[in-house]
Amino acid sequence: MREIQYAIRVLMRSRGLSLAAILVLALGIGANSAIFTVVRAVLLAPLPYQNPDRLVSLYEREVVGPSQFNVVSPANFFDWQRQASSFQSMGLYADQDADYSPRDGGLNEKLTGVICDPGFFRTLGASAALGRVFRADDDRPDAARVVVISHAFWRRFQDGASVLGSAIRVEGEARTVIGVMPGSFDFPSAGTEIWLPAGQMLKPGWQQLRGNHRFSVVARLRPGVSVVQARTELDSIARRIKQQYPGELTGKGANVALLADRMVSRVRPMLLVLFGAVACVLLIACVNVGNLLLARAVAARREVAVRSALGASRLRIARQFLIESLLLSLAGAALGIVLAEFGTEVLIKMAGYIPRIDTVRVNGQVLAFTAALAIVTGIAAGLVPAWTASLGSLTKAMQDGGRSATAGRGGRLFRDGLIAAEVALSLMLLTGAGLMLKSFTRLHSLDPGFRPDRVLTIDFSLPERRYDNPARVAGFYRDLLARVRATPGVESAGLVTVAPLGGHFMDTTFTIEGRPPLPAGQFLDAVVRSADPNYFQAAGIPLKRGRVFTAAEWLDAANKAVITESMASTFFPNEEPLGKYLRLSDKLVFEIVGIVGDTRQKLASAPEPMMYFPIYHGTVTYASLLVRATGDPNSLSLPVQKQMRGIDPDLPAITVRTMDERMWGSTEQNRFGLILIAVFAILAVILAAIGLYGVLAYSVGRRKGELGVRMALGADAPDITKLVLLQGLKPALAGVALGIGGGLAAANLIRTLLFEVSPNDPAVIAAVAVLLVLISLVACCIPAWRATRIDPATALRSQ
Question: Are strands 581-583 and 146-149 parallel, antiparallel or unpaired?
């Protein structure tokens, strides 16, 4: 306790040094705690389900192409369920938004929904907080219409518990609420509001479909069965199914992976890279504080030597300096927790969609991590100063107080080494930030295949129970487009089933008329869209050859197809596709009449072969309306919605976004990683610059006598400036050299986060190296300028 009290007095006497150290440590510890909070919740915390380590996801593999994680067809799922012995249970589910009609008569809403079978809840071990979940008899087409709702959706009802057993209107029909899930249940995503029985929502015979790949499957392993054993068994079953049905579009095998791993597979690399980056920031902070404490230890050599002469042991002296370091670190951790709380909120807002991000919060585990980090940081930062101080001797200390007082060669080399390490770590982070910035710039400079400016998109669907024949569906589309095109401010308008950047969404197999049949088990496959004739103009997609659809091509006459350039080059490499026929089934044959430019369905993915069919065929009841405005597209949002409601007042809820917003949203996670890496890199550079400045300023202060003698003997200001600059730039340049090597190694860790940028990009590495040298030069300039202001007479008298 006496040593702690003494350490507090010492730190209070050096308020500037203490405050600087606390702020530096707070930044490092706070940033680490904030990132750890996210990593713990997303990657480390167990799933909130019964025995989560036994939960796995099941996939078909190599359905068309080399994908190892393809969604599952229902017929294959039921075969797996009957034949596999490695699993206690299985459940299938698929996203399916649902139209909800509020009780108060307000506008219909689109709920985030899931269709699932009874095995879904049973496999997860999930029970309802109120009521019950689905049973086997709920999953029949003729069963009573039921629904399970989320805790968040339940809270919207003022009558609370009385909602249980009452009816709500979903998808145009009354459904009884049989269960309310607890607030902690958020599968498959935190935004899920409603669960519906798959057997009630899908058309009869859906269980026999092998080519309709739309379901995800969750399963629970039997005790003692490993993931590898389950994968081996399921893969052999899937291969037998493929042999049994060689002409069906089904996977060549199956795959099994832990559910927790698959949920975060997309974001794990980015989060681990961020965790590594923020660890570098903390390491730089440690080095900075170590340098500050080392300066204090050197300045206190007389005091230490006297204490040693009076009987203090080396351990006692070292312990005193370690206590000072730990106190600084704990104070930095206390401030760091405040910064972590704030930083976590910022991270959640910036992150966009990351699995389980809603569970992120500063809790006891985070506090324990922060405390442990503070102790380790305090020891790491104080160890070298403590060791250095304990080596002091009275004779040496008294000599250092005389005219020849200069820092020892060993001490200078050690401090230079610390500076070099700071610069090297900073360069590594700056290299990562530079590569990600270049990647992000490349991504945004891509030609997406369409013109996003001044385009409003409106996603909607038609209730199948009311729009139950193709003529009515096609009539709605025609009426809608006629009204929208007549709206003031509309330049053009068109319909497509899925707007650009909407993802893969749907593909189908086909054959080309006149070609010999493919061997059993081989298929031609392409992304499929339906569109009206004006869609290509509204979206700004260029026509390359031929023509697009005409208004006359609708219902039975809607037998033309338009394909993209990538489809033409993939499936017609040495022939003219125009005039060829695509067969989708015995009744669906389409003549290729035009070729249009490719559009990207994901900004970072290459365009896929795609074929368009006339939406006036009337077989699809969902679409995206693209409206190109003469001015601000947002000004058309309400007028266009009024036109839609004018045709059908009971139209389900719609989603309105500009195409620019879709473009911005498609790079959300890239932007999240870039911003954080850039922030950490800038913070690291600032800390390194401060460290370099601090060491040089201290050195100039210690060398006043030497510099005064030099000036008295004729050295002018340029000579002194050169001397000090060289002293600072030598470790900085050594750090740049080390950092280039480390940056090349570290850049390979973010390879998967880069788009069309090599991790060894010489332009980025050179630019970062030059930038860091310039920053180091600026950090050296102020101490160099101060050195030239030393008065030789004053400096000599002080000695």
Answer: unpaired
And the tokens for 43? 């990657």
Positions of E strands within 198-335? 216-221, 253-258
Is residue 63 within 8 A of residue 367, CB to CB? The reply is no
The residue written with tokens 């409601």 in the block is: 645
Provide the b/e sequence for 475-492 (b: ≥16 CB within 10 Å): bbbbebbebbbeeeebeb
**Cα 475 to the center of its chain, rounded Å:** 42
692 in Cβ contact with 775 (< 8 Å): no
CA-nearest of 453, 458, 451, 452 to 637 is: 458
Q: Which residue has the tokens 């324990």?
A: 368
Residues in CB range of 81: below 8 A, 6 or more apart = 90, 119
Distances (CA, A) of 92 to 69, 77, 194, 327: 15, 8, 15, 55
Cβ contact 563:592 at 8 Å: yes
d(CA 708, CA 692): 23
- Cα-Cα-Cα-Cα dihedral sign, residues 720, 724, 730, 732: negative
Determine the Cα–Cα distance for residues 492 and 105; give it in Å rounded to an integer.
Answer: 34
Contacts of 69 (CB under 8 A, 6+ apart): 59, 61, 255, 257, 262
Residue 524 host element (H or E): strand 524-531
Q: Is the predicted pLDDT of residue 383 greater than 50, yes or no?
A: yes
| Residue given tokens 């077989």 in the structure block | 619
Nearest to 541 by CA among 596, 494, 610: 596
Residue 468, SS3? coil
Using the Cα atoms of residue 14, residue 19, residue 22 and residue 25 in order, give the sign of their dihedral.
negative
Q: How far apart are CA 620 and CA 461, in angstroms?
A: 9
Token pair recorded at residue 592: 């290729």
- DSSP string across 764-780: HHHHHHHHHHHHHHHHH
Which of 10, 7, 8 lies closest to 320, judged by CA? 7
- Output the pLDDT for position 432: 85
Strands of 413-523 (E only): list them. 455-461, 490-496, 507-512
Tell me, what's the pLDDT at 392?
A: 53
R_g of the chain, CA atoms, integer Å: 34
- Cα 283 to its chain centre, rounded Å, is 25
Burial string for 566-596 (b: 16+ CB within 10 Å, else e) reads bbbeebbeeeebbebebebeeeeebebbbbb
Residue 435 has pLDDT above 80, yes or no: yes
E strand segments, 630-711: 655-658
Pairing of strands 87-95, 581-583: unpaired
Q: Please give the helix or strand (H or E) that residue 180 lies within, else none.
A: strand 173-180
User: pLDDT-derived band of residue 398, with 50, 70 and 90 as boundaries?
Assistant: very low
Higher model confidence: residue 160 or residue 94? Answer: 94
Q: Which pairs count as long-range contacts for 8-17, CB under 8 Å and 24+ apart, including other chains?
A: 8/327, 10/324, 11/324, 11/327, 11/328, 14/296, 17/292, 17/295, 17/296
Is 543 buried (19+), middle (13-18) or exposed (0-12) by CB count in 10 A? middle
Which DSSP letter does residue 463 get?
Answer: -
- Asked if residue 769 lies in contact with residue 453, where contact means CB atoms within 8 angstroms, the answer is no
Q: Are strands 455-461 and 216-221 parallel, antiparallel or unpaired?
A: unpaired
Report the pLDDT value the prediction gives residue 407, as an integer from 0 to 100: 47
What does residue 301 show for φ and ψ, rounded to 5 degrees?
-65, -35
- Spatial separation of the C-alpha atoms in residues 137 and 111, rounded to whole Å: 25
How confident is the model at residue 397, as a pLDDT? 47
Q: CB of 121 within 8 A of CB of 182?
A: no
pTM, 2 dp: 0.78
Q: Tell me which amino acid residue 406 is.
A: T
Asked if residue 188 has a cis previous peptide bond (ω within 30° of 0), the answer is yes
Three-state SS letters, 50-104: CCHHHEEEEEEECCCCCCCCECECHHHHHHHHHHCCCEEEEEEEEECCEEEECCC
Map tokens 């061997």 to a residue.
Answer: 519
